[in-house]
């Protein structure tokens, strides 16, 4: 995974020759079924790359933020990655800060812990006729495409979905990703950065701990953060780097947002 991270960091800064890309990718994907020489396989797993002549380009490096599709995702689960499973996925896809589509599905499961049902309002009876996890994941992967994966505490949602996809034989996620907590810390002045705190600060009204509702709330946080970016951040990879390394509280004043 470290070699994959290094490869993506290189691509986020410059194009690579196809042969250099393949050489560096040799230890990046741990799967006998994955052909690192086949650019389409990288694309199928969400990495937005393109081969032209003998060069490999990461499209998020040249895409402007307004041109980029972002998919804001939230999941509900019956437990941790080792003991639970996804029971609901919700997602909102936006371009130029405008919603272009959404995705929502419950997932068949049994024996939902009482604490999870109390938190989410999702009970065993709600999931009896829900589609199986493999079908929902397959549909979600198609929906996600090569959009940038955005979530509040992104590593949880991204890694849980990626691990679930791998366990079903679909391969890991390779989409570029952004954490709205990290981005908000650099663009919105707040005492706390949990989703509920930011909803209260920004006047976002939604049901908490349901996947699509929380995805839409995180989407509003994301759009607010985009309004606060410095003029120098124009392309998607610049946004990703800004979310990870810019000084915190870039703006002292949060712009008003009408919901």
UniProtKB/TrEMBL annotation:
Chain's gene name: dinG
InterPro entries with a match to the protein in the record: DnaQ (IPR006054), Ribonucl_H (IPR013520), RNaseH-like_sf (IPR012337), RNaseH_sf (IPR036397)
Domain of life: Bacteria
Residue intervals of the Exonuclease domain: 69-231
Protein name: 3'-5' exonuclease DinG
Keywords noted in UniProt: Exonuclease, Hydrolase, Nuclease
Pfam family for this entry, one: RNase_T
Molecular function GO labels: exonuclease activity
EC number: 3.1.-.-
């Amino acid at each position: 995974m470290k070699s994959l991270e290094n490869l993506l960091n290189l691509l986020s800064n410059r194009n690579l020759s196809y042969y250099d890309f393949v050489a560096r990718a040799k230890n990046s994907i741990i799967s006998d079924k994955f052909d690192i020489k086949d650019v389409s396989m990288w694309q199928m797993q969400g990495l937005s790359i393109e081969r032209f002549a003998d060069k490999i380009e990461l499209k998020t490096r040249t895409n402007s933020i307004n041109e980029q599709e972002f998919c804001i995702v939230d999941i509900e689960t019956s437990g941790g990655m080792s003991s639970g499973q996804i029971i609901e996925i919700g997602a909102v896809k936006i371009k130029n800060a405008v919603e272009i589509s959404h995705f929502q599905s419950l997932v068949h499961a049994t024996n939902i812990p009482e604490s999870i049902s109390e938190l989410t309002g999702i009970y065993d009876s709600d999931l009896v006729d829900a589609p199986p996890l493999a079908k929902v994941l397959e549909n979600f992967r198609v929906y996600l495409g090569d959009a940038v994966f955005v979530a509040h505490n992104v590593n949880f949602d991204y890694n849980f979905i990626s691990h679930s996809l791998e366990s079903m034989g679909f391969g890991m996620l390779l989409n570029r990703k952004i954490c709205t907590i990290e981005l908000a810390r650099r663009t919105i002045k707040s005492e706390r950065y949990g989703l509920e705190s930011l909803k209260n600060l920004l006047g976002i009204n939604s049901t908490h701990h349901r996947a699509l509702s929380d995805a839409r709330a995180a989407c509003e946080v994301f759009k607010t953060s985009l309004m606060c970016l410095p003029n120098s951040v124009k392309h998607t990879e610049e946004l990703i780097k800004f979310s990870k390394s810019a000084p915190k509280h870039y703006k002292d004043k949060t712009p008003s947002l009408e919901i």
